[in-house]
Design brief:
Elements (H helix, E strand, L loop, with lengths): L22 H6 L6 E4 L5 E3 L7 H9 L3 E4 L7 E3 L4 E2 L1
Antiparallel strand pairs: 1-2, 1-3, 3-4, 4-5
């Protein structure tokens, strides 16, 4: 079995969440479902199940493809480019 390493993992840095919720949703008073933490810059965005899908938009716009869940009890990372858990 071959194990592939995601090249985007080199972009992961120690980060602090930028806000207590989705930054843009807080500013526009929009709802969100789940939160995702951008592991390159600390931006907090909402998930793909949320109406605005801000985490995905930020990944595409800023080239920060790896997120971690900010939900309690969840410990995973996802790469939007590789479309895989990392």
């Amino acid at each position: 079995m071959t194990v592939r390493t995601d090249p985007h993992l080199t972009l992961v840095r120690p980060v602090t969440p930028s806000a207590p919720g989705c930054e843009e949703c807080l500013a526009t008073r929009s709802p969100w479902i789940h939160l995702r933490l951008r592991l390159t810059c600390g931006h907090v965005g909402c998930c793909d199940s949320s109406p605005n899908r801000r985490a995905r938009r930020h990944a595409a716009a800023d080239g920060h493809p790896i997120v971690a869940s900010l939900e309690g009890g969840e410990d995973w990372r996802w790469c939007f480019v590789q479309v895989a858990f990392v």
